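Q: What would this chain look like folded?
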Amino acid sequence: MSRVDWQNHPECVEFLLEFIPGHTEAEIRQAFDERFGIVLTEANIGNFKYRYKVKSGTHGGRFQKGQKAHNKGKKMPPEIYERCKGTMFKAGQPPVNYRPVGSERIDSEGYTMVKVADPKSWRLKQRVLYEQYHGVKLEKSDVVLFLDGNRQNFEISNLVKMTRAELVRYNQDHFYGDDLDINKCAVGIAKLKTKVGELRI
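A: My prediction, written as structure tokens:
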């Protein structure tokens, strides 16, 4: 589902009509993202409220201290229920944009992400492949570098593990180009310089 389609998708409309009352804008954005994988803006929510004449009951997008949700314990109005019941989300039914484990997507920086668990656990593909091939568990401080700079080349020989400190040194020395052998040497130099720096401390 695209960012534009959600505005006219019955399931999205039904969800917001039911969820908005009694919730802050932050809660609305988070719930919608978790359900449909789409991040709404403040303008998106404001326009939807105006279009469908629905209010959250909050002030400036936030609850006042001690304020109770005005729709607590109330059922959806019959006219809205009748309009939406045909597309209502059923218990156990996956959302329209559900992606199974193993699915891949490209993030905004051009890296491939792999879904490793439900409901929304994604990891960088190069880290997953490196761990699987070498039988190791990468630390948070570890990065996996594409030697040739191509973020879509997942050949194991093109993936090199470095610490963030080593990567900083590698980038500072401007060691990268088309020659993989030179790049491998540059990685080794960056690791050596980082180790020398640690020993001097």
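The first strand starts at residue 104 and ends at 106.
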